Amino acid sequence: MATFSAILLSVLALVTAAQEIQTLQDLSNTLLLNQLAMSNMLAERDSGTRVIREWLNDLQSNITSEIAALQNVVKANGVPQDAGKGVVECMAPFVDVYGHCIFVETALTGTWQTMRRHCQQKGGEIVKVDCGNFMYYLVRYLHSNGLAKLSYWVGGRDEGHEGSFFWTDGTQVKMGTPFWGDGPNDNIQEPDGGTNQNCIVMATEDHYFFFDDSCNISYAVICEKLKLS
């Protein structure tokens, strides 16, 4: 009996030891899983931090570019004067923006030709933006009046004389800053559309700098009531 009891105790001890070993193994596996989860969390955090850092760098670059563009406006045209100076009387729906009678059409969109005819039907013409000060106050007017969610046709195009843009009155469109942007998607200096993109848009996604696009795309339009000479 004593021998059987000793054997039974030994077996029980072995079972207990095996259970303890299994428990330790389970704890070890749990620890490894927790370490893996922590590593993944740290990797995701580092990835998120990197994305945020890249976004901030891009934002800083864009702000720097816009500051440089505004500095070019000031350098080329002087500090913009008070928009109230040189105010002209404009008949509705046209309003004065830096001495220009402007109507911003938001209820209708169409091709460049369609929207030019629309301006003419209102007794005006598709707008000519050839002054840095005027461009500054026009963009400010769009933002101040809740009109900065759309992109707008303006009066320049290069159909028939690729690469040389002209306004509807026959005068040539100025190139470079502060008028032309670097494109809303590719960061390439505009104009860059080749023979398929011949009309000028002031695009909300490009902060209302000029870029060339297909004349057959639908955009809103900015019209100008020409002053009588």
UniProtKB/TrEMBL annotation:
> PROSITE patterns this protein is in?
C_TYPE_LECTIN_2
User: Keywords for this entry?
Assistant: Lectin, Secreted, Signal
Source domain of life is Eukaryota
Keyword hit for Chloroplast:
no
Chain ranges of the C-type lectin domain: 97-224
Q: Where in the cell is it found?
A: Secreted
Signal sequence residues? 1-17
Instruction: Write down what this protein is called.
Output: C-type lectin-like protein
Q: To which species is this protein native?
A: Procambarus clarkii
